[in-house]
Amino acid sequence: MTISLPQVKTMYRAVVNKDSRFEGIFVFAVKTTGIFCRPTCRAKTPKMVNVEYFATAKQAVAQGFRPCKICQPTKSAGEIPDWIKPLLEQIKLSTSTEQPNLRLTDESIQKMGIDPARVRRWFKQNYGVTFQCYLREQRLDFAAQKITNRAQVTSTAFESGYESLSGFHQAFKKQFGQSPGTNQFQHTITIAYLPTPLGVMIAGTSEQGICLLEFADRIRLQIQIERLAKLFKSRFVLGTHPFIEQLSTELHQYFCGQQKRFSVPLDLPGTVFQREVWQALIDVPYGQSRSYQQQAAVIERPKAVRAVAKANADNRIAIVIPCHRILGKDGKLTGYAGGLWRKQRLLELEAGKIKLISS
């Protein structure tokens, strides 16, 4: 089967801009070097006349091109490379043993056989923050949890690696919007970055279930997160959780073409109408699609087409609540916050045209 591709001008513009919204949509090969890359490769942009495009890495390999060693296009975007895993394990061990005052300088990182500059680039590219900012957030998350458990603010500050109370208060207020002595968070949402063939996704879970799953470059993502924080009166902690691990496994199976309905628990704060629309989305059969009009008819609200469309847009859990299965009245692709070409690929996956991951 032929897999659809964007127009050549669109793809080349994505290569020039290193546009992450086209991850998994195509790879490009450079005829003069014999190498193929993902759209976000940070190598020098080739001339347009020297570029050839393929829907999958497998197609590029079949044509004799070699994968780029810089962007590694045969791996999922955001997949953790082997070289940085020892460093992440050391950070995880520090926080799990309640000693988050770990200080990692360039010198200590070099002693692990890792290039500090490479670490900085990787964290900025995958987490959107500097490495030291990531460590600081880990210490503050630990501190917030301790204070929630009524530990003393002073002792928590020094246990978290801060050398002064004023510095701790300032950092805490910047991170959470309030002073540590007035910490009144009712919930914690654990978030994690998940690699997928279509780009990095950010997942969030409460203790009841998954409450967030969006592409990390989704438009208006920050607005979605702010709404979620208000609904839960919550703080966000970067970490791991059994629900996120289950979600990661099910997403992998989905992209292999094996998972047709997700079983991971969901936590869906919203109005009665929103939850009704979201449940109707979940009930759209795998491999099928509906129009907004059909969806409104299913929930017996035939005149509420616009309200249904808005509720679809308010969905915070992509793929699991499959709003990508809703099309325009004429059967054309309509708005999708993760990008229309991602929507196209998801529909092609569910139609059996492609497998985004080999099982």
TrEMBL record:
Any Pfam family matching the protein: Ada_Zn_binding
NCBIfam families: ogt
Molecular function terms from GO: methylated-DNA-[protein]-cysteine S-methyltransferase activity
Domain HTH araC/xylS-type: 110-186
This enzyme's EC code(s): 2.1.1.63
Lineage summary: Bacteria, Pseudomonadati, Pseudomonadota, Gammaproteobacteria, Oceanospirillales
Keywords in alphabetical order: Activator, DNA damage, DNA repair, DNA-binding, Metal-binding, Methyltransferase, Transcription, Transcription regulation, Transferase, Zinc
Protein name (database record): Methylated-DNA--[protein]-cysteine S-methyltransferase
Annotated GO biological process: methylation
Cofactor(s) this protein cannot do without: Zn(2+)
Native source organism of the sequence: Aliikangiella maris
Catalytic activity: a 6-O-methyl-2'-deoxyguanosine in DNA + L-cysteinyl-[protein] = S-methyl-L-cysteinyl-[protein] + a 2'-deoxyguanosine in DNA; a 4-O-methyl-thymidine in DNA + L-cysteinyl-[protein] = a thymidine in DNA + S-methyl-L-cysteinyl-[protein]
InterPro entries assigned to the protein according to its UniProt record, in alphabetical order: Ada-like_dom_sf, Ada_DNA_repair_Zn-bd, Bifunct_regulatory_prot_Ada, Homeodomain-like_sf, HTH_AraC, HTH_AraC-typ_CS, MethylDNA_cys_MeTrfase_AS, MethylDNA_cys_MeTrfase_DNA-bd
Enzyme class per UniProt: transferase
